Amino acid sequence: MRERRVRVRLVLVGPPGAGKGTQAERMAERLDVPHISTGDLFRANLKEETPLGVEAKRYMDAGDLVPDEVTVAMVRERLTEPDATKGFILDGFPRTAPQAESLAGLLQEQGVALDAVVEFVVPDEIVVERLMGRGRSDDTEDVIIRRQQVYRDDTAPLLAYYADRLIRVDAVGSVEEITERVFDALPTP
């Protein structure tokens, strides 16, 4: 097990059920950097009723998607917090090539760049099995298969955007095995 105490800036991508959240937590602890989930950012901003949270809620209450500008602004604020200066693991952002371009601009303002984008690769049938096992009422097989297709459609341009720093990791196996695969695949400083 290699320990790394260097600045590392990563983006994790993968379909729902790929284990991104679990791996992000493990990696963040091992690398001593924050795990930044856009879902957590939204919940915190909504709960604290920040100006960005209030703006996001307006869109959500109307049944609209929160625009990229609001999401990017939340990420921008989070990346300027002191713990993120030593690196970070982004989970759930960016989801699209335009969001990736916005992230590149944010990082360029800070004079840094992403080290790698880790794609967790899992066959559809395993994802369906994992998500069906959660027992959530909205996790029907048809809904899960639809989410997989939306993920593939939305993420293909993102993966192309990050082709120069994309690391594909087989995300089938034990949590520990997958974590080791990620660390073995990360570029060394």
TrEMBL record:
Cell compartments where the protein resides: Cytoplasm
Record EC number: 2.7.4.3
Domain of life: Bacteria
CDD domains tied to this protein: ADK (cd01428)
Single Gene Ontology MF annotation: AMP kinase activity
Binding site for AMP: T38, R43, D64, L65, V66, G92, F93, P94, R95, Q99, R136, R147
Main localisation: cytoplasm
Pathway(s) served: Purine metabolism; AMP biosynthesis via salvage pathway; AMP from ADP: step 1/1
Organism: Pseudonocardia oceani
UniProt record similarity statement: Belongs to the adenylate kinase family.
Function: Catalyzes the reversible transfer of the terminal phosphate group between ATP and AMP. Plays an important role in cellular energy homeostasis and in adenine nucleotide metabolism.
Residue numbers binding ATP: G17, A18, G19, K20, G21, T22, R134, G173
Class of enzymatic activity (EC top level): transferase
Pfam families: ADK (PF00406)
Catalytic activity: AMP + ATP = 2 ADP
Region span, NMP: 37-66
Entry text on domains: Consists of three domains, a large central CORE domain and two small peripheral domains, NMPbind and LID, which undergo movements during catalysis. The LID domain closes over the site of phosphoryl transfer upon ATP binding. Assembling and dissambling the active center during each catalytic cycle provides an effective means to prevent ATP hydrolysis.
UniProt-recorded name of the protein: Adenylate kinase
Keywords associated with the record: ATP-binding, Cytoplasm, Kinase, Nucleotide biosynthesis, Nucleotide-binding, Transferase
Quaternary structure, from the entry: Monomer.
The encoding gene: adk
